[in-house]
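Dear colleagues,

As part of the handover before I leave the project, I'm documenting each prediction I ran so the next person doesn't have to rerun anything. This entry is a single chain, and its sequence is reproduced below.
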Amino acid sequence: QIMLENAGADRGLLALFTGETLLIEAEARVVRAEVNVLKALPVDTKRDGLPIAPVQIFNYVQRTQEPLVIDDAMRSDLFKNDPFVQREAPRSVICVPLQHQRRFTGILYLQNKLTSHAFPPDRAFMLQSLSSQAAISIENARLYGNLEALNRSYARFVPVEFLQMLDRRSITDVKLGDQVQRHMSVLFSDIQGYTSLSERMTPEENINFINAYLKMMEPVLHNHFGFI
C-alpha cells in the first residue's frame, strides 16, 4: 500500500518465490485502500477465464533481474500482446525484482491505467529502495514462520520438559554438548499379551491403540510432575 501511494500507481501485485515457483501472494488497489492477501496463486492463474498477472512481464524481470519501466504498455512492442496487458490496458508499468542478500526472492508489479510516463527514473529508484526493505521484511517473516513450524514439528518428538530442564525455549536453541544432571524416576509399562494382540492389528490400528493408551496414562503422570 505504501509503494502504491508513493509511486502514484492504482494497482499492484506481489509475487514471491516458493522454491523455484513464482506465486502471486497479494494484490492491492488504490480505490479499495486495502491489500488482498491471496492463496499463493501461480502467475498463470486465470480468474473468470482472465489472467490475473502479466506473465510476459514477470518472465522478463525474472530473466534480467533488473527493474523494468514501461512508459505505455499498450504501445510496447515487447508486451502489448500479453493477455493481461490486453485485458487490463495499463498505461504506465513498473516491475521491480525483490532481492535479499543477492538472492532473487520475488517481484513487485505496479501499474497506472490513466497516465503514461507515470514512473520517472527517480520514482523507480525510490521503489527499488523500498523493495529492498520489503524483501528483508518478507525474508525475516518467512524465517520466523519456518522456525515456528520447525518448533511445532520437533514438539511432537521432543518433550517440552527436556527443553525446560536445559533452560532452552526452543529445540533450535539446544547446542551439541548441552546437558544437565537430574535425579529422575523412570516408569516402564508393559501391556500384557500385547505381542499376540498386535499381530491381529494393522500398523495403523497398532499406533491408534498405543496413542489411546498413552492418552489415558498422561494425566496421571502430569499430576505427579512426570511426562511421557
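Strands lie at 11-18, 21-29, 34-42, 46-47, 50-51, 68-70, 92-100, 103-112. The mean pLDDT is 86.

All the best with the project,
I.
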